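Task card 7
Instruction: Convert sequence to structure tokens.
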Amino acid sequence: MNQKFSPLFKEFKFANGVSLKNRIIMAPMTNFSSHEDGTVSDAEVKYYVRRSQGVSMVITACTYVTPNGKGFPGEFAADRDEMIPSLNKLAIAIKEQGAKAILQIFHGGRECPPELVPNGDTVSASAVASERGGSKEPRALGEEEIQSIIKDFGETTRRAIEAGYDGVEIHGANGYLLQQFFSPHSNRRNDRWGGSLEKRLTFPLAVIDEVKRVVEEHAQQPFIVGYRFSPEEPETPGITMDDTLLLVDALAGKDLDYLHVSVSDFWTAPKRGVEDDRSRIEVINERVGGRVPVIGVGSIYSAEDALKALGTGVPLLALGRELIIDPDWAQKVESGREAEIETKINKDAQDRLVVPDPLWKAIIHSPGWFPGVE
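Output:
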């Protein structure tokens, strides 16, 4: 190994005692490749196996906690106990390669395509449609339904424990249900679940409390609980950076094992709410102040990119698109072959890269999403 890059391969230990062999994590990425019944496909398992050898931890694509939370075609399910063997199949495949397996748990809320949820009944914090083109106005959730979904996050955590995962990541990012409750755009409630910023935090924090309660009750060994969030929204009203710093304070007080920022570029500066030339991740990491580890992510392609990002003080880095482009990224850097890293998608390399057909089609037909796709 080039000693210059040795900081990327230092062991990391969470406060709960779980150790990671290095600082490189596979970010959660939807792959659209599960079976119609919600079970994990063989193609999906092979895709994860191909990418789990060099990294220290793999965060899976999101899995839905309740039938009306399914956000994507080909998304795998964790909403009932019958799914535990399917979940276990993926956990074993990842762990056999030497990586920790983290199940990302999720409800899509108003972003769920109506054709994927029972009776087309999409739900959210309030009856406010997403600003995406063609979006349907969702139905506002009632009190009992909210309580039920909180319990569903807990039940899915129990299934993750029984299926052999090393942890869960609560998906509070990318405009999905937990973010919908926190956002002033999608949450116009005036009960205990909305109104002030503090009340808009009630649902995400209740989900965290339930997940941690279930871990305390069911886990026989240290079990990781992380939380992912998006720092800003483009909508007006919408989440601004100063809102997010208050969210971060609340999350840092919940004894989580990590916070995972969801941005497409590590170095993007705040747009609204904070005047700061530094990246949003740097601002967030400073606010956290070491209370909980922060995972940085976003357009980290080369070893130099990763080293520069780690140099900001963020202890862990997640690679997403780069591990699709080059599944051997970590092994190449660790063995001193960082110059061999591929940083653009090779359109002729689907078989070598072990990418399932639905994901490959999405990549090839999405200009600008991946380097090399014009």
